[in-house]
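Task 17 of the worksheet. Students: predict the tertiary structure of the chain below and write it out as structure tokens. Keep your answer in the requested format; marks are given for formatting as well as content.
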Amino acid sequence: MALVTLADVVAALGGDLHGDPATAISKIGPLEAADSATLSFLANPRYRAQLPVSLAGCVIVAPEFAELAAARGAAIITPDPYLYFARLTQWWVSRTRPVVPASIHPSAVIDASALLAEGVDVGPLAVIEADVMIGAGARIGAHCVLERNAVVGAGSRLAARVTLGHDCRIGERCIVHSGVVIGADGFGFAPTQGRWEKIEQLGAVVIGNDVEIGANTCIDRGALGDTVLEDGVKLDNLIQIGHNVHVGAHTAMAGCAGIAGSATIGAHCTVGGGAIILGHLSLVDHVHVSAATVISRSINKPGQYSGVFPFDENSNWEKNAATLRQLHAMRDRLRALEKKI
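Model answer:
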């Protein structure tokens, strides 16, 4: 990539530049590994000690660090450095990643009834079944499978080896990474005489706009109604979304989280890595679940929730859990007795 100047960056993204606008930048990088051609940023105050000694050609900082940053060299001052950094990466990619013209690879298998809008790109060995609809500018990667009646919205991008099950829908401007399976059967079986009778999964998956789904994540179709992810949901890699789950707008989940069937998660929630939400529970908007936490009851109040508890025989675990919930009251009683003594 050709060098850019700080003047180019500020012209595109704004911010208050302190320093030479002609300073050349060739890469974006972290403070501790930066050199004079690096544009870096400081978003977390915990890392402020790295700022004075960083060799970065320019650092993006909040107003509270403007003086400290200017003392070491060029700086771009902005109210939200992390947001600025995010937009910087988008601008950078738009300049560095070549835009490949849309085409239909000759090895792709496309049913005659499928409807592909203008500018759709289909990679090698992709399979597009009957009555599929793909919106303008969408990109379907190599070895993807879009089953009958599936819908992909305009501008969405499916990386290689994505499977979109029959009747499932993805909205506009979504990004679906490799290995994702949307619309596999939910885990539904009825016990009978020591064996399991399959419950056919009759629903679908409906995904809103601007959703991103990480590699090898699985989203099961509903048993009767649909599994739903609303607009702006962000899922990391290796997440399991069970059948009939409903995830509210702009909720984000980190890797290896598991959401059991028929759980309802509100908008603007976060779920930490490895956390589990049991089935048929409801979480209101703005609930934040810490990593490795097991949510075993509905949450009706916004806030941060955490908990890690060792496993045991179930009867012992229930007794210990009941005792643990009384610890705060027991502490207060103990303090009161100590004062009396």
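Marker's comment: The chain has a mean pLDDT of 95. The longest strand covers residues 38-41.
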